[in-house]
Amino acid sequence: MFDQLKEDINIVFERDPAARTKLEVLTTYPGLHALMFHRLNHWLWHANLKFIARFLSFFARWFTGIEIHPGAVIGKRFFIDHGMGVVVGETAVIGDDCTLYHGVTLGGTSWQKGKRHPTLANGVVVGAGAKVLGPIDIGNDARIGSNSVVVRSVPDGATIVGIPGRIANAAVTAPSPEQEALAKKIGFDAYGTAQEVPDPVAVAINGMLEHIHTLDKEMEQICNEIQSLGGKIDGKDASEISSAPIDDGTGTSCKGKQS
């Protein structure tokens, strides 16, 4: 038991640069306190002392601001940073070396008994305010971005952002000058998105822009061929999005504005 407590304290120093002394961690870290309560409550739960386990988990929630159901399974070197508002459901399973930040919910989406909460594999990090819901699997070393809502299983090593959660592909190639010019022309500035963790919606639109750029080049070649054969082409430039009227929901329309 003491070896387990020592490991739980040591892991705080690895993941929280604000930690200074073991005494400070032992006395002022609610995530550690909640985990200590849970290890006892989990043992009581499987010893068929379920009322005592639930009562102590209720006290732990009052004392720490963290609610962990005694039935939840938690692996080694688990760390809850800050902790306020964290909720871990009854059938949740958390692997080794996982980290949760404040406001995280590992919740269910059904009132049916049985497995209804998520399973986190090893090395998962869940950002502040994120909601991971339902009997889904989160793969090894996955990252869940702050305030994301995840309702589908996540593969190993993926980074999830947004509502609903989508995989953010960090391997995004830099746009060409032609693509940047086209984006500016139609009033879209997705290329300003940070490349480390880009918005997946912006990435999808960027792909559409690349496709449009290719179609423009092919259309230009077709027009040149038609003109070389004596045909007449009425060339028109693409109008900017800001010139189109936008319904503001009040029955009137206004001109769009570029962001």
Which bin fits the share of residues in helices? Answer: 25-40%
Shape: elongated
Q: How much beta, percentage-wise?
A: 15-25%
Structural class: alpha/beta
How are strands sequenced across the largest beta sheet?
A: 3-6-9-12-14-15
User: What's the name of the CATH homologous superfamily of the largest domain?
Assistant: Hexapeptide repeat proteins
Give the number of helices.
6
Mean residue pLDDT: 80
Label the CATH architecture of the largest domain.
3 Solenoid
Largest sheet: 6 strands, mixed
CATH topology tier name of the largest domain: UDP N-Acetylglucosamine Acyltransferase, domain 1
What is the highest CATH level, the class of the largest domain?
Mainly Beta
Question: How many domains is the backbone divided into?
Answer: 2
Topology order in helix (H) and strand (E) letters: HHHHEEEEEEEEEEEEEEEHHEE
Architecture overview:
By secondary structure, the protein is an alpha/beta fold. Helices cover 35% and strands 15% of the residues. The protein has helices at residues 2-15, 22-28, 30-46, 50-64, 177-185, 200-228; strands at 67-68, 73-74, 79-80, 87-88, 93-94, 99-100, 105-107, 119-120, 125-126, 131-133, 137-138, 143-144, 149-150, 159-161, 166-167, 245-247, 253-255. The strands form four sheets. It has a six-stranded mixed β-sheet with strand order 3-6-9-12-14-15. It has a five-stranded parallel β-sheet with strand order 1-4-7-10-13. The longest helix has 29 residues, at 200-228. Residues 188-195, 241-246 and 252-259 have low confidence and may be disordered.
